[in-house]
Amino acid sequence: MSRPFVNWSGSLSFTPGDHAAPADEDELRDLVLRARESGTHLRPVGSGHSSSPLVRTDGTLVSLDRMAGVIGQDGDQVTVWGGSRLKALGESLYDAGLAMENLGDVDYQSIAGATATGTHGTGVRFGNLSTQVAGVRLVTGTGEALEISPTSNVDLLPAARLSLGALGVVTQITLDAQPRYELRRRAWCAPVDWTLDHLAELQHTNRNMDFYWYPRSDLTQIRTMNRADDLPEGQMWGARRALESTPWSEPRELEIGPTHRTIPQNRDLRFEEIEYMLPAEAFAACFAEVRKRILNRHRRIVGWRVLVRTIAADDIWLSNAYDRPTTTIACLQNVSLPYEEYFRDMEAIFRQYGGRPHWGKKHWLTARELRPLFPHWDDFRQARRRLDPGGVFLTPALARLLEEA
């Protein structure tokens, strides 16, 4: 009997028809071919951190945990197995003198899962993790092992860098890395109005900057990271002149260390999350409405915080930052508290300002609402049909999302 699958937060639970953990690409290709011949389905799954229902399947849930680690390095490019967890990958890259350009708050994920759902960190100069993907190797719905890179099947690269697991099982990823370096992390609290007034300066004078807004206190916590070797002695943060004239808490230097140990944060408290990516120019008006709505309607049940980050524009077809500088708003809620009414109310606001949902988090949109938000939506659908003509990887949620049902 197949065992149940439960995601990190506990909000997604189902029992697939079977589980599989192939040790190599040949075993994976056999799984795909058998599924195709029998008319059943496969769904690749990463670490289970996502709360999206995309992995729900009555077919075989395929884990790449046995296909992890670094395969090879060519200068500042490194090829890794798709099942590599970000934490272990960071250590391996560090040992090789390398680092990923940017990371998100969580290192629990696999690299294939993180890039397939558009995981991101923060920083106006940095795209999401998928922008670091130089090429992929995947097993398609016909059982073919296909290379997609600037020199092979390049027309598929804008689809394959962020694919939702719809094009095939990504077995290998080639990443653009860079020489390793250390970051200095700092944090302090400030009134929310002050933070909003100085947000552009904070974003552009720090390598990485984000902030939490706490609805219960109506205060913010500002977090900055800068390269340790670029930070002059005595310069505590980028917006020093503004800070000198404003009441603020004593800044704390939290740590100095390599990127893979400094950027991700421990997440012992489980939570649910909705996050929308907004055109940067729409952020101020959207956040003002979000803040007002939470204070007036949801403050009594909001147990946690609202996170604001930035992402650079890119050219990846299903990227939430496609063709526009992006500011994100994420509402977090403890798993022990109700979230759906709160999140749906926030989603209605986000949509009014052209927001695009994070693929790995809660949202309630279908293809009808999504297609107008992504100029290459139909191009991606054509790529999916080309690589998986029999719908081997088409889960019910993915079918509804792509309007294939």
Automatic annotation (TrEMBL):
<dbReference type="InterPro" id="IPR036318">
    <property type="entry name" value="FAD-bd_PCMH-like_sf"/>
</dbReference>
<dbReference type="InterPro" id="IPR016166">
    <property type="entry name" value="FAD-bd_PCMH"/>
</dbReference>
<dbReference type="InterPro" id="IPR007173">
    <property type="entry name" value="ALO_C"/>
</dbReference>
<dbReference type="GO" id="GO:0071949">
    <property type="term" value="F:FAD binding"/>
</dbReference>
<protein>
    <submittedName>
        <fullName>FAD-binding protein</fullName>
    </submittedName>
</protein>
<dbReference type="InterPro" id="IPR016167">
    <property type="entry name" value="FAD-bd_PCMH_sub1"/>
</dbReference>
<dbReference type="GO" id="GO:0019853">
    <property type="term" value="P:L-ascorbic acid biosynthetic process"/>
</dbReference>
<dbReference type="InterPro" id="IPR010031">
    <property type="entry name" value="FAD_lactone_oxidase-like"/>
</dbReference>
<dbReference type="Pfam" id="PF01565">
    <property type="entry name" value="FAD_binding_4"/>
</dbReference>
<dbReference type="GO" id="GO:0016020">
    <property type="term" value="C:membrane"/>
</dbReference>
<feature type="domain" description="FAD-binding PCMH-type">
    <location>
        <begin position="12"/>
        <end position="180"/>
    </location>
</feature>
<keyword id="KW-0060">Ascorbate biosynthesis</keyword>
<dbReference type="InterPro" id="IPR006094">
    <property type="entry name" value="Oxid_FAD_bind_N"/>
</dbReference>
<comment type="similarity">
    <text>Belongs to the oxygen-dependent FAD-linked oxidoreductase family.</text>
</comment>
<keyword id="KW-0560">Oxidoreductase</keyword>
<dbReference type="GO" id="GO:0003885">
    <property type="term" value="F:D-arabinono-1,4-lactone oxidase activity"/>
</dbReference>
<dbReference type="InterPro" id="IPR006093">
    <property type="entry name" value="Oxy_OxRdtase_FAD_BS"/>
</dbReference>
<comment type="pathway">
    <text>Cofactor biosynthesis; L-ascorbate biosynthesis.</text>
</comment>
<dbReference type="InterPro" id="IPR016171">
    <property type="entry name" value="Vanillyl_alc_oxidase_C-sub2"/>
</dbReference>
<dbReference type="Pfam" id="PF04030">
    <property type="entry name" value="ALO"/>
</dbReference>
<dbReference type="InterPro" id="IPR016169">
    <property type="entry name" value="FAD-bd_PCMH_sub2"/>
</dbReference>
